[in-house]
User: Fold Glycosyltransferase from Thermoanaerobacter siderophilus SR4.
Amino acid sequence: MKGMKIAYITSQTPYGKGEQFILPEILEVIKKGHDVVVIPVRPEKEIALGDEPKEVAKFTMHIPLLSLNLILKSFLIFIKHPLRVVEIIFKILRHSGSLGKILKNLLIIPKGLVVSEILKKRKINHIHAHWASTPSTLAYIASELTGIPWSFTAHRWDIAENNMLREKARSSNFIRVIDKNGYDEILSYVKEYRDKLYILRVGVKVDVNFKKLDLKKANRALLMAVPANFVVKKGHIYLIQAIKKVIETQNCNVYCYFFGKGLLEDELKLTVTQLNLEDRIFLKGQLPHDELIELYRSGKIDCVILPSIVTDDGEKEGIPVSLMEAMAHKIPVISTNTGGIPELLEGGAGIIVEQKNSDELAKAIMKLINDEKLREELGEKGFEKIEKEFNLSKIVEELLYLMGNN
Assistant:
């Protein structure tokens, strides 16, 4: 495919810590010979930790969400195209729904006007936004003003928010959803635009020749990892309880690293202390993405666990990249029957347990402790699943095809 000029609209990437899964996708698009400019809606001052954010930052424009200079520039653009801007404002008022979403979308307009001028000057061929929320609102505004075709990736919570979904579906060339559940959910909002919906998963890098290092040693401890920020949805508390049960039952040599940050950090530390697990569970902080991958490559991590739950307000997982990346390195995984996780682990690609059930989690961990052959089998099946269905290179090729042919 001939090289395209593509604008990626993100929420914060390469700033912030919440969109690390977007970094490899952007770098793969660049690797395949396309010119990319990345424009985050709410850029922070500091680039996220790691080599990947630094690399993506080379292709990123830091434009604040609001500033005096931005407002002045947007006013001049409004003077040039008053009718078109008023029409966009009218559509936002008409299609946003709640007052909260109206205000969020109106706040994006000044930056949308400025970005539209930038993309027009750069002769961008396609605009792609990650998230069906305000990043896609920015892309929508820029497309409406420039006529540049656009698309967006819808994940999970952003679908439920229903921020102008029908209007965005009408005006976009296609909508990418990352799992079957997401497809069914967004279809309920945009049935008349069914032909624009494509299931195209978020992928991870796969080395088809990857060989797991053999670190077998007599009585070596089982080291588990949980790469997930400390928020309710990730269910850390149930894993802490499960590890306590495992130790009480088998008194085995098992340890766990928690990689992440979040509001629940102090609460989790307190629980670990109260259960006398300070020498078993270690909160390691936020690990840069490339360092986490290198840890997987080293062969030191024996199992990755994601004890996710559905929160009281209905928040749940899509298909977690954190599990995919472990599976791509032949690391067995344990997770729960929430969101899109069963879709990822079906067919024996991992162990699925009931959410919010520390007893089932403990039993699954003990299975892996006691059965080395099972660990190897799960690692191989997980790798096969990722190579077949979640290979980043193949997924980006499909995404680029949609961008160039819709």
Remarks:
- The chain has two domains: 5-203+391-404, 222-390.
